[in-house]
Amino acid sequence: MARPIRADIRLSALAHNYALARSAAPRSRVLAVVKADAYGHGLASAAKALPGADGFATLELDGAVRLRQSGFAGEILLLEGYFGAAELVEIAGQGLATVVAGEEQLRLLEAHRPAASVDCYLKINTGMNRLGFPPAAARRALERLTATGVAKSVTLMTHFATADGPEGIAEAMRRFGEATNGMALPRSLSNSAAIFAHPEAHADTVRVGIALYGATPFAHRSAEGIGLLPAMTLRSQLIAVQDLAPGETVGYGATYRTTKAMRLGIVACGYADGYPRHAPSGTPVLVDGVRVKTAGRVSMDMITVDLAAVPGARVGSDVVLWGEGLPVDEVASAAGTVGYELLCALAPRVPVREVP
Length: 356
Fold this sequence. Notes:
The protein is an alpha/beta fold and 356 residues long. It has two domains: 11-217, TIM Barrel (Alpha-Beta Barrel), CATH 3.20.20; 232-355, Lyase, Ornithine Decarboxylase, Chain A, domain 1 (Beta Barrel), CATH 2.40.37.10. Helix content is 28%, strand content 25%. It has helices at residues 11-24, 35-39, 43-49, 61-69, 85-94, 103-111, 138-147, 170-180, 192-197, 223-226, 328-334, 339-344; strands spanning 6-10, 29-33, 55-58, 75-78, 97-100, 118-123, 151-157, 187-188, 205-208, 232-244, 249-250, 256-257, 262-268, 284-287, 290-294, 302-306, 318-322, 352-355. It has an eight-stranded parallel β-sheet with strand order 8-7-6-5-4-3-2-9. A six-stranded antiparallel β-barrel has the order 10-13-16-15-14-17. Helix 1 crosses helix 3 (43-49). The relative contact order is 0.14.
């Protein structure tokens, strides 16, 4: 028999979360962000779940080409743009849209103008300080982009650094407004957090990322509270049960010691499956639908859980590591990280099953 771990990808949850973003920003086009293999959910699964999407956005050119060749005829945006002349040719040939995010990309476009025109998103840096033209350089960048004759359309774009926090987006919006004053062009501003928290920034096109997969973009607002559904459930089973006396230790490094007689379950899941190695004892897990806690270090292929709350648990009992009944954000918080990382870290060796 195969090892019992698997990830269930619920297509209806992806569709529900996309529809929720659309209802939150009803006057905007909604691009579904599917970078990093749809945040670990599978690019093909996301495309299957969202055939009526206004468009998709990704980083990987090969993924964008696969989407196009699968039959999706709408907009497919490359969020980091292009990194060479050959990619420009591919982008134009496949009818993809691209971000133009800095001086190097603009010079590349000026020097290697593809035969076909391309939909372009001119990115302006309003405080994230990763990619984008400085606000003072935006007007000249637009003039140069337009002068190439390559741009079929131009959308003005930024990415908010603090849409999910108390700082909000006021300063970023001020910078963007000053940089683009008088430019009568479409705009794309909002990420997942801004979609649900800042309707003033919805503009023409929004980009739904982490919320599409049912995890929260906020530190202090749950996915359930927003109305999102988990799209990935990581499931396994107990493969052994240990009855330990007081004073026994558990796992590598003997970091966990029993203070009383304990019944422990061994789960077929470890850091080689994508479970966070740094998750401490006490991280929540569901066994037969009951919340329990991990005990001891996460190892490559197994974790150990305290079965005190589930006296009937046995070898073969169902385990949920995150997903339905146990938000990935809660597991991530216990492990000192974010839901994004756990979803994206799902290992290739974990079988994936699409469910309606």
